[in-house]
Amino acid sequence: MTSKSTTDQAFVRDDLHGTVEEPTYSGALSFMRRKYSRDLAGVDVAVTGIPFDLGTSNRPGARLGPRAIRAVSSNLAWAQLDEWGFDALDKLAVIDYGDCDFDPGRPEQIPARIQAHAHTVLSRDVALLSLGGDHFITYPLLQAHAEKYGPLSLIQFDAHSDAWEDEDGRIDHGTMFYHAAQQGLVIPERSVQIGIRTYNAHAWGYNILKGSWVHEHRAQAASAEIRRVVGANKCYLTFDIDCLDPCYAPGTGTPVVGGFTTYQAQQILRGLRGLNLIGMDLVEVAPPYDVGELTALAGASLALEMLYLYAAKPGGA
After folding, report:
1. Which of 18, 25, 80, 82 meets the CB 3.0–4.6 Å disulfide criterion with 87?
2. What is the reported pTM?
C-alpha cells in the first residue's frame, strides 16, 4: 500500500490503466473500479449500462442488472484474472461511461436512444462493453456497430435463438436476431449461436451449437467450431446469462435447465483468444430472482473475460 489514496478509484484515479487494490466492501461501485467518466480521450473501452427490460416476455427485472453487475465486480477488481498471463487493465484504458439515458414512458423512442448512445462512443474509435438490460438492447447496439464496421459475425451465447420471426418495429427480446439477419447487420453463415436449448423451426442461416452438442463435445471443440465459422471476420459477442444453467444463474427472466456451468462458459470464451472482436455485451441479469448475487457475479466475471478477449485481439486494442 502507498500513501496515495487507494479507495474510490472510480473518482480519484488519474491513470486509466492498471489494477489498484481497494476494499471490496466499500467505495463507489463502478465496473471493476474503473473511473466514471464521459471523457473518451485516450480510452480503449467504455463500459456502459443499458437498464432496459421493456422487451422482456417473461419475468422483468433486468433493468437492475447493470447496477448489480457493477456492485459485485468489486470482488474481482483486486488482481488480474488467472490463466490469461496478463492483466487486461494494464493493456486497456477502460472507463465506466455510466448508463444510457432514456424515457421509459416513451418506449418507441428507446431503440434510437440506445443506438445514438452507442454511436457517440464508437465515433471516437472507442469500443463498448454494454451491460443489460434485456437482450433486446443488442439490436440497436448491433445497428450502431454495423453502421461503423459493416455486416458482422455474431457470437451469441444463449438458451434461446432470439430469432423468432416478427413484424418490423416491435420491441421484443426474442426476435432481434431475425431482424438483424434480414437487415444485413450480421452475416448468419459466419455467425454462431451457442448453448441453444429451446425450439425454433427456422435457423435463418445461423450456425447453431446446441447446448446438448456442447455438453457432448466439450468446451475446446465448441471454441474451435466458433473460430472456424467466424474466421478473421469482425465479430460482435453477446452473452445472455440464461446460457448458464439456472443453478449457476437463477437471476434471469427466462431460465432454461440444461445449460452451461460457469466454468464451461469461461473455458469457451478463453478458447476464442485472437478473434477480431469489435464489440460485446452481457445481458439478462435480473437481480430480483438472484440468490446471494450468484448471477450478478457470473455476469461480472464473464464480462471481465470479454475485456481480456478484447485485449488479446489481433494487433491489440
Report:
1. 80
2. 0.95
- Cis, peptide link before residue 133, omega less than 30° from 0: yes
Helix (H) or strand (E) holding 119: helix 110-122
User: Residue 263 is inside which H or E element, if any?
Assistant: helix 262-270
For residue 50, list its beta bridge partners.
132
Cell reading at 307: 475485456
Domain that holds residue 153: 9-311
List phi, psi (to 5°) of 114.
-65, -45
Note whether residue 86 is domain-resident. yes
> pLDDT tens-digit profile of 232-287?
999 999 999 999 999 999 999 999 999 999 999 999 999 999 999 999 999 999 99
107 found inside a domain: yes
Tell the residue number behind the cell numbers 461511461, with chain if given.
97
Show the cell assigned to 8: 474510490
- Residue located via cell numbers 456442447: 214
| Cα–Cα dist 147/122, whole Å | 10
Residues 253 and 97: their CA atoms lie apart, in Å, by: 26
**How far separated are the first and last CA of the chain, in Å rounded?**
29
Q: How many domains does the chain have?
A: 1
* CA angle centred on 54, ends 48 and 55, rounded to 5°: 95
The contacts of residue 194 (CB under 8 Å, 6+ apart) are 155, 156, 157, 158, 208, 209, 214, 222, 226, 243, 268
CATH of the domain at 52: 3.40.800.10
Q: Residue 219 CB: number of other CB atoms within 10 A?
A: 20
Q: Identify whether 204 is part of a domain.
A: yes
